[in-house]
């Protein structure tokens, strides 16, 4: 048995929302590298085109704002016309923003919920028939956050507004629960729904002092590298995880164990 037998996705079709983000790029690269025709979804056509060129001919730029009904419907129509199936849907769309209870507004909560939860429903409505049409083990993968499991520690950040805002963790916690709900309802159709909860993946070029404080919060004593999320997504995307559904896989260096 080789890697192709274990995790190969040749002949399969994948969609990654938030594809130009730090984690989205490595997820898309992993899926395309395993052989999947991978649609890169985001709002910036230029960045999508550049990423598609970088990742190779298995990738397709697909400009789409997942908070806009017409955009998501058009994405579904394109997949239906070009592929006639969908095997892997990675819901990773995210907008990074700092804040606190003092600075947050009700509209912030609504916008965050629409991006995390409303977009999930739009994407499912637009592609459910395509997921059901696949002859493999169709997989939906939601991307949540450690801050949907535990609260940020204010003392890690220089100011209250530099930390994660309250609505971010609230909707990510909701996405974990929505994963469970969807797994139960979609299971009879053969569609698996799982969640990945990343820990601290701050990327390059951050404040060294902040990175050091974040690293101290994990038993491993370091922050994560974006590539360390790729194998989890690849496992959940592959038919080798065909008996895994409704679960939340935490990839956080141990942040949430203490």
Question: Would you mind describing this structure in some detail?
Answer:
With 258 residues, the chain is an alpha/beta fold. It has one domain (3-250): NAD(P)-binding Rossmann-like Domain (Rossmann fold), CATH 3.40.50. The chain has eight helices and seven strands; from the N terminus they run H-E-H-E-H-E-H-E-H-E-H-E-H-H-E. It has helices at residues 3-7, 22-33, 45-55, 69-82, 106-133, 166-186, 208-215, 230-237, and strands spanning 13-17, 37-42, 59-63, 88-91, 139-143, 192-198, 248-251. Strands 3-2-1-4-5-6-7 form a seven-stranded parallel β-sheet, sandwiched between helices. Helix 2 (22-33) links the parallel strand 1 and strand 2. Helix 2 (22-33) crosses helix 8 and helix 5 (106-133) runs parallel beside helix 6 (166-186). The termini are far apart. The model has no long low-confidence stretch (mean pLDDT 95).
Top keywords for this entry?
258 residues; Rossmann fold; seven-stranded parallel beta sheet; alpha/beta
Helix-strand category: alpha/beta
- In terms of DSSP E residues, the strand content is 5-15%
For the biggest β-sheet, the strand order reads 3-2-1-4-5-6-7
Q: What do we call the CATH homologous superfamily?
A: NAD(P)-binding Rossmann-like Domain
Main β sheet profile: 7 strands, parallel
Mean pLDDT score, rounded? 95
CATH arch. level architecture: 3-Layer(aba) Sandwich
Elements, N to C (H/E): HEHEHEHEHEHEHHE
Radius of gyration: 18 Å
Summed up:
This is SDR family oxidoreductase. Helices cover about 40% and strands about 15% of the residues.
């Amino acid at each position: 048995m080789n890697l192709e037998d274990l995790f190969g996705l040749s002949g399969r079709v994948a969609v990654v929302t938030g594809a130009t983000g730090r984690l989205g790029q490595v997820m898309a690269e992993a899926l395309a590298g395993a052989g999947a025709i991978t649609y890169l979804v985001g709002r910036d056509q230029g960045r999508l085109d550049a990423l598609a060129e970088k990742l190779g001919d298995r990738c397709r730029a697909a400009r789409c704002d997942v908070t806009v009904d017409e955009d998501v419907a058009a994405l579904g129509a394109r997949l239906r016309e070009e592929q006639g199936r969908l095997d892997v849907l990675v819901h990773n769309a995210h907008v990074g923003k700092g804040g606190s209870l003092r600075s947050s507004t009700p509209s912030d909560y609504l916008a965050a919920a629409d991006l995390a939860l409303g977009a999930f429903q739009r994407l499912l409505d637009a592609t459910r028939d395509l997921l059901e049409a696949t002859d493999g083990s169709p997989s939906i993968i939601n991307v949540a956050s450690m801050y949907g499991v535990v609260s940020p520690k204010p003392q890690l950040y220089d100011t209250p507004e530099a930390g994660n805002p309250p609505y971010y963790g609230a909707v990510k916690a909701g996405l974990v629960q929505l994963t469970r709900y969807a797994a139960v309802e979609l299971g009879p159709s053969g569609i698996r729904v799982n969640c990945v909860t990343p820990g601290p993946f701050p990327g390059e070029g951050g404040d060294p002092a902040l990175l050091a404080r974040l690293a101290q919060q994990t038993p491993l004593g370091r922050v994560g590298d974006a590539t360390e999320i790729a194998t989890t997504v690849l496992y959940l995307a592959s038919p080798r995880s065909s008996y895994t559904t409704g679960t939340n896989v935490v990839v956080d260096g141990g942040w949430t164990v203490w």
